[in-house]
Specification:
This protein has 15 helices and no strands. It is mainly alpha-helical.
């Protein structure tokens, strides 16, 4: 029996009349959820392999840094490519090929003995993961009327993968090597790809008038750029939290490292639980109010981290930051999916690319700031990110029609 928040009514999804018999929207949604679960599991599993890979290939810090810098480049390439392909040819084939590509990447990382081949495998893994992340979000937007709410529910599965995988790895490490676990996750990826081969996905958007030549019109829309750079700042803020929180807590607030890692997991838990609420009880909440409230909540969490020296307050502050950041991606993607329905995947492709650039640029900037000015500026940079998000959210809603924008009653094709 499905939980209440995942029982889909006909009104929650929108399917053009001439496509009704071509695919089952609930099956497509669950297929997308499996894809994003896979994305979360894959990133965490690969991260857990870092120490073993350094040992196997006798990598120094520079070599390890080079290897793992390939992953975000691959994800960036996948994010850039998936949109026009999905709009032009549909989702199915690209998702299947991406699952097979991730499978090849997983198995290669597990068994190759050449460092050059290892780098190729990491790139293939990253590119295919970027495609799956972007395409699953775009297809859920296409089939939904309550776009932001359903994208929030989709995002829950990334959180499940990211939270559940460390516990799974902790249990399995007593019985299997990390390479065997990596290979097993690869087999799971292959199974998802085979499952996709039996799923009927929405067709290409050629019948809706999509053509590559028309994509230039998309990039004349300031609304698209406002959303993309809102998520540039949010992606940067998430990078700071994910990559620098443990350093901030251990060096600035004297946390033990294990406690800091546990606290970071609570941040992901807060974000995941809030997305469940956005997709269920807050489904009809006004979009503008939800975003503004979320920014205020995230600000409260950053203020708590900035001023406190108390461990419990810092823990609560980080959970609050997770709650505040939960709405950003699904709501903004939902707005873009509604505005650019005829070329939604291409719009998502651009948005994800800009957001990933924000993640990479701000993460690098935080490293420079920490080296030259100290880790205590962790919160200073977070305040700048929130300020950018606030300004851009105002510009976004100025561009929206003045009528209230709610999840209920949104339509993709009119």
């Amino acid at each position: 029996m499905e939980p209440p928040c995942l029982r889909f009514k006909r009104s929650q999804f929108q399917t053009p009349i001439h496509h009704l018999k071509m695919y089952n929207k609930t099956i497509v949604f669950w297929a997308a959820c499996f894809g994003l679960l896979l994305f979360g599991m894959g990133l965490i599993t690969l991260g857990a392999m870092a120490t073993d890979l350094k040992s196997k290939f006798e990598l120094d810090e520079m070599g390890a840094g080079t290897l793992f810098s390939i992953l975000p480049i691959g994800i960036l390439c996948g994010s850039l490519l998936f949109g026009p392909i999905c709009d032009l040819y549909g989702y199915k084939l690209l998702l299947i090929l991406s699952c097979f590509g991730m499978f090849a990447g997983f198995e290669g990382i597990s068994f190759v003995s050449s460092f050059s081949f290892l780098k190729v495998c990491v790139f293939i893994f990253g590119m295919c993961a970027g495609v799956i992340n972007g395409a699953t979000n775009a297809v859920v937007s296409d089939i939904s009327t309550s776009k932001g709410a359903n994208l929030s529910l989709l995002g829950v599965f990334f959180g499940i993968g990211a939270l559940g995988t460390p516990f799974l790895l902790a249990v399995l490490k007593h019985h299997f090597s990390s390479y065997q676990v990596m290979a097993a996750v690869g087999v799971f990826t292959l199974c998802i790809g085979l499952f996709y081969s039996f799923v009927k996905f929405p067709p290409s958007k050629k019948k809706m008038g999509f053509a590559l030549a028309k994509t230039t019109n998309l990039f004349r829309e300031s609304f698209l750029f406002f959303i993309a750079f809102y998520l540039f700042f949010q992606g940067g803020l998430e990078a700071i939290v994910n990559n620098w929180t443990t350093t901030y807590l251990t060096k600035h607030l004297s946390f033990e490292e294990t406690s800091a890692l546990y606290t970071l997991s609570l941040f992901v838990a807060g974000l995941t639980v809030t997305r469940i609420l956005i997709g269920s009880v807050l489904r009809s909440f006004d979009v503008r109010k939800l975003i503004m409230t979320s920014i205020a909540i995230a600000l409260a969490g950053i203020l708590a981290l900035h001023f406190t020296r108390s461990v419990p307050v810092a823990v609560v502050g980080l959970i609050v930051v997770g709650v505040g950041l939960a709405a950003g991606f699904p709501i903004m993607l939902g707005l873009a999916g509604e505005r650019f329905a005829a070329q939604s995947a291409t719009a998502f492709s651009f948005i994800f690319t800009v957001a990933l650039l924000g993640n990479m640029v701000i993460n690098y900037l935080m490293g420079w700031v920490t080296k030259n000015h100290g880790i205590h500026h962790y919160t200073s940079l977070a305040f700048v990110e929130l300020g950018g998000m606030l300004i851009l959210s105002m510009l976004i809603f100025q561009k929206q029609n003045k009528k209230q924008q709610t999840y209920v009653g949104e339509t993709m094709v009119k």
